[in-house]
Amino acid sequence: MNAPELNAQIRRSLGVLVDSADELRDLDQQLGDGDLGITVSAGSRAVIQALEELPGDATPTDIARATAKAFANANPSTMAALVAGALLAGSRVWAGKTDITVADSQAFVEAAAGSIAQRGKTQRGDKTIYDGLADVADALKAAAEADGTQATEAAVIAAAGAVERTTPLQSRRGRASWLQERSIGIADPGATALLRFVEAWRVSRSEESALLS
Questions:
Q1: Closest of 52, 42, 34, 111 to residue 72, by C-alpha
Q2: Which domain holds residue 160?
Q3: Which residues have C-beta within 8 Å of that of residue 213, sequence separation ≥ 6?
């Protein structure tokens, strides 16, 4: 996937993602402060606008950095700051690249997950978005030789598995941890948001393929 294709794919995916804002808001009201829906919708719209304004010669790194800046500026939330930091970490592994392969995507997600783990002081099993990112990174590593469609499907399965795996756990980070045992049985909003994003990526890829067929 070259840079213009990446730009368009991100914008299409975020256009689909905003449809999940109400679900994420409702879920976050159970475990957090209820602002995740706004974070996702406002951030997505800001990123779409920022990417539309990028010059045609923008590199994948430029695209990732613009995404991070727009998402952070659209929201004052902790989640927005963590996501922006993760995107910036991922952008560094794309330095000098003009085309993004599945292996490059895996390296991006792995770097993003590492940023979340460090800044959020979290690990697998804490029931956060990190669980999903770490599982998606592992899935993309296993699918390094697959095509984009197969890799996307592997990412969706991994993200869904992370939500399912962590729902029975007690939340151990952020506002959700304040609920202690009451958080058991409720899906983590951050991990769910990641799942909805990779699902949106799959939908937008399918729509683009249909247009080209």
A1: 42
A2: 3-205
A3: none
